[in-house]
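Notebook entry, structure prediction.
Reason for the run: the old model in the group folder had no record of what sequence produced it. Starting over properly, with the input documented here first.
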Amino acid sequence: MSIDLKQLRYFLAVAEEKSFSRAAERLHISQPPLSQQIMKLESELGVRLFTRTTRSFELTVAGKALMLEAAELLARMRMTIDTIRQIDRGEVGRLRVGIVGSAMWGPIPALLEQFQSQYPRVTWTIHELGPNDQWEALRARQIDVGFWREPRIEADVLKQANLRQDLCFREDVCVAINAKHPLAQNEAIELIDIAGEPMLTLHLDQSAEPRYLIQCCVNAGFQPTIFQEAAEPQTLLAMVGAGLGVALLPQTTSRIGWPGVRFLPIRSNPPSANLYITYPVEGDAPVVRAFLNILFPEQPTDA
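New structure, fully documented this time:
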């Protein structure tokens, strides 16, 4: 049996119009090909779909049953085609976003809000992970995109992992210092000004970022004394507020307004806290494309 959707569409037009001539006009075809398709459909099914006399034109019992089934089938097919096109445009699907916690104090929430507004049928989830864990999750296809900060991954390392990394938000590092510290009275300081202060940092083995910040201190002329390491920026701020040391954190951290802590800009050559997005190069990921087109509206990026 060989029945195609075109035959069902032709049959439905004839059934609804109750006229071959009107159906042919509606379908923008001549009447003979239409009649041939209906006869072919009846032959394939082995039933009569219409009773025809010189004065009447009616559906048979089988024809009435097919009319209902064909209408539902064609409606489902239209819905399927529409859904497939929406999926191709990234309007339907799932997006798993890896992110470092400090990025949620910056522009990421607004970005996610815009994405949800433009693509309400996409389900997205946040996975708060350190850069190392995001890297492994991206390679294992457990997340679709990842956000983390400096330093940028080397191009050859990204290529070997079939990943791409793009700069999405620029930001500098500032010094988080106890509000009672003498330096806290300044509007801004130099990085060398905290030489000799106990340094509070994220775990040095958690990612390359804290090691990068230590190297920035060395480049500024001093070797910082690491007093304590922590897993979360909030823990560092709590220790700064208790007067246990200073911490280097992204400027957007100051939006938290942590009690007993001042956030001082660094005047000369502040370390970068730039935020990067990392995502797979290979494979067709329409939802990722849609997300990137919001992130880079004037510079669409292939996912």
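Summary: The first strand starts at residue 50 and ends at 52.
The old model has been moved to the deprecated folder.
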